[in-house]
């Protein structure tokens, strides 16, 4: 998920004088880059991987839903504990949990004798031991991931001082840089047998990540100057395109993959390598924290925070949810995050089971961080002064429309698998969908936090913002099982299985599924408008 930055606040900070961050600020951001690289190197394939392990039609989505819910819900508790234990100790423990979790995810294929089916089957055939390993792995990844973000964001907050907006601009850019290059690295590792292209890709990604970080630092520092946003957007786009071109040249994509790599991908055996990428990235992050991370110093005039027990945290959550305005807002905005969750649920299932036997979901979903890295500042500069509620309504409409465009391939001449720009047309529209979802994020995510701050009772803004991730958790919790139902029982109803294992969908049934997803976005937008009208009338 991405966050946008207020242009006015950034410009004010740029004029404040000091523009330097302590070393721990950069260490924390490098750590976050590797953590996001690890998570998103495997996130696009989790439901496919679990399906190929024999977990049936529904459990891959259910387990993926549990993972995302833990990652978004548990920081409410783990963030407070980490603040009391210390960020450094918490991060070291978190990366041990993450590395162990990623290794356990790959263990059944590497050492457990399990084989990945070439298709995602409907029947549940996995053994109890395999299921236990996967559940344990998901719990470790979820708990570990839930600790990292509050530690890193807390470090950014404590070390940025008067440059908080600049600090969080770099932080959010780093998240998406790690996400973008993590997916690209995972693609190379699982499709190439030689170590040379892997190392070359890592080197290109490292250089590009450094350049992008320096660019965003320069851009926010010079935000008050005319033309800065345009230069930054063009520069970001140029860096990413050049990095992609360099990686393509290294891989020789123009002449096609090597025969052994193609055979490896076709067999599906290489898919488990994404967890090796995630484990290595987590291990690197552990080393960075161990050698370079120092506990951020507290400001002399900073007020002492009262220690909160887990029971106190949960009680505060109940008190927050008793606020009718906040509870209704959570319900309304959760529809957006339900649809966001389908990027990692319905869309991988749709492409793998309907469109392609071996989809490059890591590259397809890379459209999300690509859009955010290249266009975050541009969208913020053009629409940053839009009222938060209007911005969120636009975001809900955009994400709803992103689902609707998948109706087009269902009715084109040649069908959903007809080639378009080197891809099946349905896959091309999935890439466009993911890109539109990212634009919806840019209009929604950061403005949601701003809106919650304004919605909270006076003097309780900090308390309410502490539970601002609840809509993401709700969207994740419902996104898995409901998304699986929409795909299996609505889209794929009456589908015919082809000899290659792909499904031939009834266009009418598939249309109903995409229209239902579109409707969720539009209903969320309408509900947001009605909710805001209700609030305005209550004020009058």
Helix and strand composition category = mainly alpha
Count of helical segments?
22
The chain-level mean pLDDT equals 86
N-to-C SSE series?
HHHHHHHHHHHHHHHHHHEEHHHEEH
The strands making up the biggest β-sheet line up spatially as: 1-2
- Report the β-strand fraction as a percent range: under 5%
Distance between the termini: 35 Å
Biggest beta sheet attributes = 2 strands, antiparallel
The whole-angstrom Rg is 23 Å
Q: List how many beta strands DSSP finds.
A: 4
- Assign an overall shape: globular
Low-confidence stretches: 4-18, 254-260
Percent range for helical residues? Answer: over 70%
Describe the fold and architecture.
- The protein has 540 residues and is mainly α.
- 73% of the residues lie in helices and 1% in strands.
- It is built from 22 helices and 4 strands.
- The protein has helices at residues 7-14, 23-43, 46-52, 59-73, 75-85, 87-110, 128-160, 164-191, 195-221, 228-251, 259-267, 273-292, 310-321, 324-341, 346-355, 361-364, 367-383, 388-404, 425-455, 461-465, 470-491, 507-539; strands spanning 419-420, 423-424, 496-497, 503-504.
- Mean pLDDT is 86; it is low at 4-18 and 254-260.
Quick structural overview:
With 540 residues, the chain is mostly helical.
